[in-house]
Amino acid sequence: MDPKTFATSDDAVLHYEDSQGKSGAEPLLLLHGLTGTHDDWQHVFDLSVLAERARVIRPDARGHGRSINPSGAFSFARCARDVVELLDHLAIERVRAVGMSLGAKTLLHLATTVPSRVSFMVLVSATPRFPEATRALFRAAAAAPRSEGEWAAMRANHPQGDSAIRALWSLPARLADDASDMDFGSDRLTLVQAPTLLVAGDRDPLYPIELAVELYRGIPQASLYIVPGGGHGPIFGDERDAFVARALPFLGLSGEDGLNASSTLGA
Predict the structure, then answer these.
(1) Which of 131, 90, 86, 143 is nearest to 110 (CA)?
(2) Rounded to whole angstroms, how far apart are CA atoms 120 and 98?
């Protein structure tokens, strides 16, 4: 993978990995979750094999990983604009895409503001809106004390310093207080042109399954995969194999050369 950086129009600097994979194939964009990084995807897909099928682009969202966010501005809509600017910088017209949580909500904005830029997408733990119970959980998460182990893990993944880590941990409260960023009614969801696979855990504490059904009913070409017993982000560990077995054929990236969950990295 080839690491690069890109400056957005508001002076954030995005770090991204670019596989420079198979030419002629529509690229695959992978967007991680909140407080995650582009490295999370190595625990889902075998990236080296995946790159044989398509060019794989994995950015760190602003303020995450090796990306910096000097202004402190953060919203899902802003993250979607970052993606558009990155694709324009790379001269990429359309992508297949997978987004997890933060990444999924970013893709909802992308697919409703510039529908032509996404051909297929997989949304993991997405939601059309934040119920009050979810907002309360966000605020509680932002206020929670952090252990030394949590600090160590975050420092290993986010090398921009402790102030940047504190900013990440404060984001849920900021997002909870934003009434407009996540507000996808049926009128907006019908704008999605891409066939969409929705993946949701039926035990997700943040987004009850009814919200996934709401997306399923609103997005014109949607399929819904509910993970039995799955929590938030049910694509890692024991749930990974089933996810990969569904996601790759949906994206047109399955094959006979081992591009499946049995060859993935990580726990």
Answers:
(1) 86
(2) 9
The three-class DSSP label of residue 166 is: helix
Classify residue 109 as left (phi > 0), alpha (psi -120 to 50) or beta: alpha
Query: Do residues 125 and 106 touch, judged by C-beta distance below 8 A?
Result: no
C-alpha 37/C-alpha 113 separation (Å) is 24
- The Cα 227–Cα 212 span in angstroms is 12
- DSSP H or E stretch at residue 226: strand 222-227
Give the confidence band of 263 by pLDDT, cuts at 50, 70, 90: very low
Asked if 60 contacts 14 with a C-beta cutoff of 8 angstroms, the reply is yes
Retrieve residue 189's tokens: 């969801």
**Whole-angstrom Cα distance, residue 154 to residue 159?**
8
> Does the pLDDT value for residue 260 go beyond 60?
no
CA distance 42 to 136: 32
Q: Is the dihedral of CA 152, 155, 157, 162 positive or negative?
A: positive
Fold of the 2-129+185-263 domain: Rossmann fold (3.40.50)
Strand 13-18 to strand 56-59: parallel, antiparallel, or no bridges (unpaired)?
antiparallel
Percent of the chain with pLDDT over 90: 90
Classify 135 as helix, strand or coil: helix
Q: How confident is residue 265, by pLDDT bands cut at 50, 70 and 90? A: very low
User: Residue 83 belongs to what H/E stretch?
Assistant: helix 76-89
Domain limits, the chain: 2-129+185-263
Residues in the chain: 267
Q: pTM value?
A: 0.94
What pLDDT score does 254 carry? Answer: 85
* pLDDT reading at 168 higher than 90: yes
